[in-house]
Structure formats: C-alpha cells, structure tokens
Design goal:
heterodimer; A: 380 residues; mainly alpha; B: 252 residues; alpha/beta; Rossmann fold; 2 domains; six-stranded mixed beta sheet; 40% helix; 23% strand; globular
Chain lengths: 380, 252
C-alpha cells in the first residue's frame, strides 16, 4: 500500500494521481520510445495500435463517457482520411493544415449527425449512426472528383515541414506523438467542467439537466469532439494503409471500434488504448501462431515418435489454416469478456494492481457490487 | 414581492389531469411542505417547477419573474435546485465529482481553454472545489469524498444528493421526499440539516414529504393535495386536523 498525502486542491486536479504514477507513465513513454530498437519488425503493426488508440479514444469519449453509442464511427475515419488526402494532394496544403482541416470537417459532420441524435436515445441512436455510416460509404463511392470512387486513390508518404516520415520508424513516432497529444487533450477536457457534464449525461440525463447542463449543447459537443479526433486518426490511417477505397470504411470497421472500447473497458482512457492494442495486435498474433504453433506441437509430439510428430503437425496445421479462425477467435474473446470481465481489460488490470498493492489481503469482494433497485420509477 | 408562487397550475397526461388548478405561494426563508397520498401530484408539481414537464395551463413565478417557459437547464442558473425521489446521482463518479457537477450552473465552460487546461481553467476549478468543500463540511461528507456513489449506502446517497443541490448555491431548494428510505436517526439528522439550510444558509425550502413528524418539526406551512387538487393549507397542525385531509388519508 502506498499513501498519498494531499496538501492542496491541485493534488486532485493533476493528470496523474501522484508522483509515483507520473514516474510510471514516464517509464512507459520511455519504453515505447525505445521499442523500435527491440522489435523493428513490428513497427507498422504498432503504428496501427496508435492509430486505433486514437479511434478508441474518440469512441470512448462518446460511448464510454457520454453514453451515446455510435455504430458509424468508421464513417468519420473515412471523412478524415479522404479530406486529408484531398487537401494534401489535390489542393497542395501543408500536412499540418490538411490534418487540422480534416479534423475540423469531420467534427462539423459530427455536429450534423449529433443534431438529430439529440432526440434519440439508446439503440435508436445507434441505428441512426449505422444508417449515417452506410450513407457516407455510398458518398465515398459516388463522389469521384474527390474520392476517385471505386478505383480508389493512392496516398503519398507524409512530409511535414520538409521532413519526410516515409520510413516505418519515423511514421511510428508520428503516430505516437499524435496519440499522446490526443490523450493529453482528452484527459484535460475530462477533468474540466465539460468532461464532468458528459459523465453526468451518461449517468442521469434528468439530473444533469436539473444541475444546469444544456443537454443538446453537450451532446453535440461530444459528437463534434469525438468526430474531430476520428478525423485526425483518419489522416494517419490514410498514410498507414497507403490506398483509400470506400469499402475500407465499412460497418465492420465501426463494429471493431466498438469492440475496442468494450474489450478495453468502457469509461476509461486506458481502456481505449488497451482495446486498440488488442484489436490491432490480435491478427498479428494469430498469423504468427499459424506459422509457429504447428511446428511446436509437431516437435512436442515427436517425443512419442516420428510418425506421431508428423501427424500432430498436419492436424494442427489444418486447424490453424482454417480461413475463419481470426473472426472466430475474436468473437470467442469478446463473449468471454462480456461474461467474465464486463469492465474490460482495464478492469482486469485494476484487479491485478489491487492484488499486488494489498498483498496478501486481496479479497474478491472488493470489486463485487451490490445490485440496487432504486431506479424503478425513472423519468424518461 | 412574491418569492415563489404557483398560479392555477394544470397539467394533463393524456386523459388524466395530474395537477388540477393548484396555486400556492412560498415566502422567502420558509420551509414549505407539500403532503398528500400517493399519486396526488406532488412530484409532478416538482417536475413542473424544474421545467421537465410543460404545464397545460397556469404560471410559475420566481422572484417576480415568470419562469413558465424557461428551459430546464436554465432553472439551476436562476437559483432553483432539486433532489429526486429515487436518487438521481451520477453513480459511476465519486462524491466529489458529483458535487463539482453541482457547480455546473456557475461554470462557464470553454472547450478550447479546457483542451489545454489553461491556468484560468485551473483557477476556476479551485474556486469550484472550494465551494464544494464548504458543502462537504456542512453535511459532514468528508469520509466519502473520494468514494464512488455506487459503493455508498442509501442514506449517504440521499445526503450527497442534497449536497449536490446545495453546490448550485440555490435560493430555493426543492427536496423530493428527503426522508424516504432513511432510518430514524438519519431522518432526525435530515430535520437538523433542513433547519440549518434555512437558518444558516438562508435558503428557502420547498419539500414533498410523507413523514409527518419531520413535516411538523421543520415546516412553516403545509399544503395537502389529493388527486391533483389542493385540499388544505396552513400550519402542520391545522392541515393535519382538517377534515378533508383526514378523509383523503383514511377514506370514508
């Protein structure tokens, strides 16, 4: 156990709980900066984790903090990506201006989507965002002067103020910088009145309203902020994949983003990043496992004899080369999470932390919550 | 000058007339209680005052201003705060965060400044915290400051909700059944706090309450309702002894 001696209101206002936590995050940042030296082969995959981290952050603000679940966030990613490429390559704007404009346009579209969404709650809002995503995908297909339609359009490597970020290493640091910036901005908003108003809307709209929260304004703001972050992520995403086509920004991608925030843990910024790491790295792990696991099993079974080893190798290889394996494992993990860890990876992480900090006094009941039945007569 | 008055208030839900021409006036510094059997329209009147429902007819007057068409989020800014019958706290936030949200009516949020957490945002946060700490001291909530609301017992939640309402620095406080679900000791504490709120903070209290001992202990005036109509008003004793009130409660 460590005790924190608070001596002023600012102690509760900082981004980090105490100096120890700040040092841990400093260490984490140093580790991430040094990571390219350790695993140079995986830099593009980890860059995708950072980009997805931004996407997770965006949806976390909307779904995890404001309680508005969107199934159309891939559309904002697409708007950001196409807008960025249009400004950068067709209009020849500088990179930073193109990203800022892409985020602004995405945010503006977010406001437009948010306005009708103010009258809808829960699953109806989710359906509306889904419809919006389908419409936007159609726009990507039809608006050929800008998007080049189904032919798709190639994306150049980023060049910022004359510095090329074409190499995997440079792009890695670019994505890392944008993610850290996004995390910082979001953490700032969440510790200020606007963030509190969002959380209030999530937990009880009627009480938020009675405390003076203008529901329409704050929901629209949440939509705009979320869409803006998604737009910035879209710009990086465009460079990452190098080629834009409408079918990339499908509903499936939106579902993946939702998966990220649920698996990571709704209502925490950590969760957004954990979820992104999970969604972006799982395919990599599965493809690695496809190559390695049959050989391992074969070697292990070879103890029983050469024929057994070869048979085991073939059997396992046939299993792991199944085409549907990746979505299958994805689905299985999701089901397991919802059954056993509704608070996501972040919830599990908190439990591990508490286990070590209170060792050997950890008790499971710490995280068990009583069901309460007080909201029988909620006003709707 | 009328501090707060309700004038010929009517609201229809479909074919049901939930509030039927109720008028009353609350003087500044009073504790005014509305009593009545279940379904009498007490909470509906509260929801009309906090502008969650639109009245079909009638007017709400607060400090000589007509607030009948003021949007609901403006009500807190004008100095009316409320609690809810079924506790509407922000459950996945700490007590402190709940109280700070109560300061929202006084916050002037500016997204760009907040994104960068500029010094002026920090200074305002300190001021809000100071105000919230005063309420924490007033209601003895120090021990619960950093606990999540979901983990708190019912009685404490009730106090936290009152604290959140006090954080808006109201001049009129609406308490919807402050003692419901509380133990005898907690109800006694509640009576003290209601008196303190009136005498130390100078806040006028309008409450809905069933517990007649609490009502008689703190109320200056009582209004009895049944089926959306006013039956009687006066001191607690006068209303309790009024034949129509006895009839409404006991039948016959």
């Amino acid at each position: 156990m460590r005790f924190q001696f608070k001596t002023g209101y600012d102690d509760d206002m900082g981004l980090f709980r105490d100096p120890v936590q700040r040092r841990w995050y400093g260490g984490l940042l140093a580790a991430v900066v040094l990571l390219p030296l350790v695993v140079p082969a995986y830099l593009t995959d980890i860059s995708l984790v950072f980009i997805y981290g931004l996407c997770g952050l965006s949806l976390m603000v909307l779904a995890g903090y404001t309680g508005l679940v969107s199934l159309g966030h891939a559309a904002f990613l697409g708007i950001g990506a196409y807008a960025h490429v249009y400004f950068l390559q067709d209009l020849g704007l500088p990179w930073v201006a193109a990203v800022a404009l892409a985020a602004a346009i995405s945010a503006a579209v977010g406001v437009l989507v948010g306005l009708p969404a103010l009258r809808m709650t829960g699953v109806y809002l989710t359906i509306a965002t889904l419809a919006f995503a389908l419409i936007i995908q159609e726009v990507f297909t039809r608006w050929e002067p800008v998007t080049h339609g189904l032919k798709g359009r190639p994306v150049d490597k980023p060049v910022i103020f004359g510095v090329s970020f074409a190499s995997d290493g440079a792009f890695y640091f670019l994505c890392l910088a944008v993610l850290v910036g996004g995390l910082w901005l979001t953490a700032n908003v969440l510790r200020a009145p606007t963030g509190r108003a969002w959380v209030a809307i999530r937990d009880s709209e009627i009480a938020a309203q009675s405390m003076g929260v203008h529901l329409a304004r704050y929901k629209t703001m949440a939509f705009a902020y979320s869409a803006g972050l998604m737009g910035a992520a879209g710009a990086l995403f465009a460079h990452k994949i190098g080629f834009l086509a409408p079918d990339i920004f499908s509903v499936l991608l939106s579902i993946q983003f939702l998966l990220m925030v649920v698996v990571g843990g709704l209502g925490s910024l950590h969760g957004a990043v954990y979820g992104a790491a999970f969604v972006a790295m799982l395919p990599v792990l599965i493809s690695e496992a496809r190559d390695l696991v049959p050989a391992w099993v074969g070697q292990a079974a070879a103890v029983l004899g050469k024929d057994a080893g070869a048979a085991a190798y073939l059997a396992v290889e046939r299993f792991v080369k199944q085409p549907g394996l990746e979505p299958g494992i994805f689905g299985l993990i999701l089901v397991l999470f919802i059954l056993f860890e509704p608070l996501g990876i972040y919830g599990r992480w908190r439990k591990v932390q508490v286990f070590f900090s209170t060792f050997p006094l950890y008790k499971r009941a710490t995280f068990r919550r009583q069901k309460t039945y007080m909201r029988s007569e909620r006003l709707r | 000058m009328t501090f707060f008055a309700v004038d010929e208030l009517v609201v229809n839900f479909g074919g049901i007339r939930a509030v039927d021409g109720v008028s009353f006036a609350v003087a500044a510094g009073q504790v005014f209680t509305i009593i009545g059997p279940n379904g009498a329209g007490k909470t509906t009147i509260f929801n009309l005052i906090s502008r969650i429902y639109d009245p079909s007819h009638g007017r709400l007057l607060f400090r000589d201003e007509d607030i009948t068409t003021v949007p609901p989020h403006e009500i807190a800014r004008r100095g009316i705060a409320r609690t809810f019958q079924n506790i509407e706290l922000f459950e996945h936030a700490t007590v402190l965060q709940n109280l700070l949200l109560g300061r929202h009516a006084h916050a002037r949020p500016h997204l760009l400044q907040e994104l960068l957490f500029l010094p002026r945002v920090r200074a305002r946060e300190r001021a809000h915290r100071e105000a919230a700490e005063k309420v924490i001291d007033f209601l003895d909530l120090q021990a619960y400051r950093d606990s999540l609301v979901v983990n708190l017992p019912y009685g404490v939640r009730k106090v936290v909700e009152m604290g959140r309402a006090l954080c808006t620095e109201p001049t009129l406080l609406l308490l919807d059944e402050p003692s419901s679900g509380l133990s005898v000791e907690e109800t006694a504490d509640m009576a003290f706090w209601i008196q303190d709120i009136r005498e130390l903070l100078g806040i006028t209290v309008l409450m809905v309450e069933h517990d007649m001992s609490l009502v008689s202990a703190v109320s200056d005036r009582v209004l009895a309702l049944n089926y959306g109509r006013a039956l009687a008003s006066g001191t607690a004793r006068e209303v309790q002894e009024h034949p129509d009130v006895i009839k409404a409660y006991l039948g016959g």
